[in-house]
């Protein structure tokens, strides 16, 4: 207790000023409320701990923390009924900036129970109040004193000078009163403050009251016997003190996880499945991660994971805590081992953060493997939704690839699923080329490339469906990971050349006829970016096939996504196509025997336009001309 008025200077030492400087470097001043409410929670939790250990024998009573404001007086008040402080404790914990009472508290009671959950940083962050206040008052009565007159009042205007005087306070606990400065009057607003409390304090472990709210209750019946209602006022409790992730998985059901998901993301489809994290060694980590159904615009769905420390919201910018390929997950992580100062450079260098990131990767891989082994058919049903996570992980993390390579799946155009090893066994007999290279064929659009898919199937080849937004990168990664394996888009070559064998078809054309046919098609196409060759192909191939090489197309696709390993310039290069004329097709003989040059070019143009049509490249006036010419040829 302070017997009389006392004045002094706040002790600031070079070794303890830096945590406070960091607090002031926060760009968002709203965190002052998070810090003050968190301190109130710490004081309350400590009192409950002392009570459970028999160190405090009084009645705990109502421990609700109260946040209020007075627009006229320009004050914001945070009140708790926790430990409270004596005058000496205020001088020790508040005047000596950044001196934490937690270490001393835990040391004193370390042999009387598990104190790790109440290692609060008493006083740390208190000075963030001066980001918005021109003057701060503390009125506190310690649980150790019996008389209201033994309370103390501390005042400071943000300088290094303070004033400590006796005060009257009826109940145990602490009131922090902020006199808001002219630049921060935006915080003297009910909905602004409620928004901050909802954001940072939604799951704090002690109930927090902020004003009153209306509730509709039944009030008898009307003349027709129908129930009447009236609105009553009740305390507005803004938080859920016992969130799902803080509970044991054994006491939770599926509906509990789904209900909590809706609480976090009210307008989102139900998740596919979830992982409940509960680790206490070698670091502390709890939380629930949900696998959502990912839409095509997956970039817009980032920043859905929220990071907490002892149920205090810290940030939803978790890219250094969660591996990048899992940023599309939803949910909550809570760890006291993640530093409260979440600047990017600090997180990146923090050893615990790196361990947590590695652990999350392992838990996700373990969960996927468990689902695969437990019910393969159900796993296959989920694959279209979860494949983006797995593929992204394979691309970005070698260790993740090693964990998932035995149950990651390929899907073919017939809707069949195969593990990597199963698919290799399926196609190796028919899709190994003359150099011993295994050729995997794929489509990026089954509808647009159907004629090429059918041509490949006619040769007994299987075609994979790789039409996702990151599949161009995934394909490159697979070629690095899978031994002696190459992936080719099904329209990158004529079917006879997709898997090159030592077989060679004889040509029905002489060299002179080949030269003549090439000349006709050069005139009909009249485009220098299209290279015409006359090939000896199967008679069941199309008369003309248009392709872009696998290398060129892949580099252009990756350039569009901002990748391509330094080939970004290729995105601006003109498209170069190969036009393969099937010299063994009957239409070519018709062109050779046509009565005049005009008729030859007309037939060649028709065959070429058919090839364009099969690649969805025939549009506008060219499409109109094709239709008109088709009518003439069949008339």
Automatic annotation (TrEMBL):
Subunit structure, as described in the record: Homodimer.
Region called C, residue ranges: 561-635
Protein's cellular compartments: Cytoplasm
Chain's role: Molecular chaperone. Has ATPase activity.
The entry's keywords: ATP-binding, Chaperone, Cytoplasm, Nucleotide-binding, Stress response
InterPro entries: HATPase_C_sf (IPR036890), Heat_shock_protein_90_CS (IPR019805), HSP90_C (IPR037196), Hsp90_fam (IPR001404), Hsp90_N (IPR020575), Ribosomal_Su5_D2-typ_SF (IPR020568)
Protein name as it appears in the record: Chaperone protein HtpG
Record-linked Pfam families: HATPase_c_3, HSP90
Region called A, residue ranges: 1-344
Binding site for ATP: 35, 39, 80, 85, 100-101, 174, 344
GO cellular component, one term: cytoplasm
Family: Belongs to the heat shock protein 90 family.
Gene Ontology molecular functions: ATP binding; ATP hydrolysis activity; ATP-dependent protein folding chaperone; unfolded protein binding
Top-level taxon: Bacteria
Segments of this protein annotated with the region B: 345-560
